[in-house]
Amino acid sequence: MDPNNPPWWTSAVVYQVYPRSFQDSDGDGVGDLGGILQRLDHLSDLGVDVLWLSPVYPSPQADNGYDISDYQGIDPLFGTLDQLDELIAALHSRGMRLVMDLVVNHTSDEHPWFLESRASKTSGKRDWYWWRPPRGGFGSGHPGAEPTNWQSIFSGPAWELDAASGEYYLHLFAAKQPDLNWENPEVRQAVYAMMRWWLDRGVDGFRMDVINMISKDVAADGHLHDGPPIPGTGLGDGSASYICGPRIHEFLQEMHRDVFAGRDAALLTVGEMPGVTVEQAQLFTDPARGEVDMVFQFEHVGLDQGTSKWDVRPLRLVDLKASFGRWQAGLAEVGWNSLYWDNHDQPRAVSRFGDDSPRYRRDSATCLATLLHLHRGTPYVYQGEEIGMANYPFASVDDFRDVESINHFAAAMVAGQDPATVLAAMRRMSRDNARTPVQWDATEHAGFTSGTPWLPVNPDHDEWNAAAQRHDGSSVLAHYRRLIALRHENPVVALGAFAMLLPHHDHVYAFTRALGGQTLLVVCNVSSTPYALSDLLPQAVGAPLVLGNLPDPGQTLRPWEARVLHAS
Ligand code: GLC
Fold it and tell me: Using an 8 Å Cβ cutoff, are 26 and 20 in contact?
């Protein structure tokens, strides 16, 4: 990264909108483009630079739009293409950019490509998806006849039988999300043409859904390999065959050449990459290689988990430091980090890593925000995070809407697990925690809809809402505003070199950022235990404050206190 000529997104902050839960404008209980257009002042006030819009394309909504049946349209549920054009223009006139979600590892099973592919074994598009006969020696439909033993990321086998042809198709996610076959050059060209069409329309880039899964490790004879068995499931872990597969860099470089080359100046590309390592991320984000600008990695959001996301463990702060520290170091010279706590797939950070009890909710939300936003990388704010939204108090399994949660519960029951234990884990980890409507005000449905919201509004919205925070300088919202402004104003925040301090301390997260003779010292107490600063970091005592989350900073680092200081 040349500090004299850094790309625009090094000092940018991205805001993610999950449209069905952001703002409803027509009273059907589902958020829409009209609603987003009504709320742009909120984004301008916050000061964010980019809006990443989760999918609004036509879709049967089996996975809330991550199952697309038409890449070049807008689902009537969300509005019209004219409104999307209006959104692009409205954002651009406010100096913001629009990044679309690109979901091309798979389509919906209702996409015309898949319908044509499924129509017959000799269809011209048969090879656009992963069709395979039953495993040798098994009749189709018999247990164990699936072509590989892979478990779907949404539970159960990753293969679905098509009774008409007797063959199976691959779906790494839900059965309604068949995987596209990127080995086929026609598939790639169709995807690139669609991407160019959106860029020509004025969008400013893409967030690429599970993009490191598009290359599968397939043998020359078309054979796919079984993975190691997953205890208690009868299935295997196929991830070695599809996470950063053999042709992934080739495909992304080709995409870059065919879609972005010549126009990249003002664009942003971020690849969502479960399981990506720092070493791989260096390659993906090295500008000289022409792949993507940055990746979403998953290491830090896996630190509170055992064998699966439903096996919840307490986060050890030292593990977080080791992980973030490695990513900061690994992408210091080449490449770039993205920074996030929350998105539509993660439970709310204040409940998960902070303390959402009334006493510490505001302080822990602002502490976590400070910690993250002072790292080197591009921060992503997920809707509602900026007002300290917390997990939802789910009472029963019927309260969940997410396909991942619903499938998990069903599979866990078949496996004989205790329903109360399974529900307790879902309450903490379900993606629906992130998907309850944004809390705009204290009225009945929080100002989200005049109808019945598709997922209930969190009952805490009477107190926790944007209206209550907008003019309160001590609010979570005001703190996010200050953090975002600081990144814009201070090149040290955007580009400064990162150095971890106190790597073994269980509660205090501290680091420096340095650029051109200026150094910032960041100290965050990620606990409710107070600490004397003079014991921990004498250099912090008396250092001028750049930004803090509690009034009247003194000698003691109070519970969940965060300070950004000028270091001498
Ligand atoms: C990504 C999305 C998630 C979706 C999955 C399948 O992880 O963020 O919401 O369910 O891909 O498209």
Answer: no
Residue 173 CA, closest ligand 1 atom number:
6
Q: How many CB atoms lie within 10 A of CB 49?
A: 22
Instruction: Give kind and range of the element (H or E) at residue 119.
Output: helix 112-119
Measured CA to CA in angstroms, residue 17 lies from 193, 297, 434, 495 at distances of 25, 19, 11, 26
DSSP code of residue 168? E
| Ligand 1 mutation pick, 57, 61, 63, 67, max ligand atoms within 8 A of CB | 63
Decide the pairing of beta strands 97-102 and 205-208.
parallel
Q: What positions carry a catalytic annotation?
A: 209, 272
CA of 64 to the centre of ligand 1 (A): 9
Q: Which residues contact 213 (CB under 8 A, 6 or more apart)?
A: 105, 172, 179, 242, 243, 245, 274
Asked whether residue 232 carries a pLDDT value surpassing 90, the answer given is no
Residues enclosing ligand 1, CB less than 6 A?
63, 66, 103, 173, 209-210, 272, 344-345
Give residue 464's pLDDT: 98
d(CA 71, CA 358): 44
Residue 101, class by beta-carbon neighbours within 10 Å (0-12 exposed, 13-18 middle, 19+ buried)? buried
- What is this structure's pTM? 0.98
Nearest to 395 by CA among 458, 464, 332: 458
Quick: pLDDT tens for 513-560. Answer: 999 999 999 999 999 999 999 999 999 999 999 999 999 999 999 999
Distances (CA, A) of 124 to 111, 166, 185, 274, 557: 15, 18, 13, 32, 66
Q: How far is CA 191 from the centre of its chain?
A: 22
Q: Give me ligand 1 centre to Cα 47, in Å.
A: 27
184-193 residue pLDDT tens: 999 999 999 9
Q: Could you report the per-residue pLDDT of 335-382, keeping only the tens digit for each? A: 999 999 999 999 999 999 999 999 999 999 999 999 999 999 999 999
Angle at 21 between CA 18 and CA 26, to 5 degrees: 120
Distance CA(200)–CA(203), nearest Å, equals: 7
Please tell me the residue having the least CA distance from ligand 1 atom 2: 209
CA dist 557 and 272 (Å) reads: 36
Nearest CA to ligand 1 atom 5: 66
Mean pLDDT of 192-196: 98
Q: What are the structure tokens assigned to 67, written together? A: 């199952």
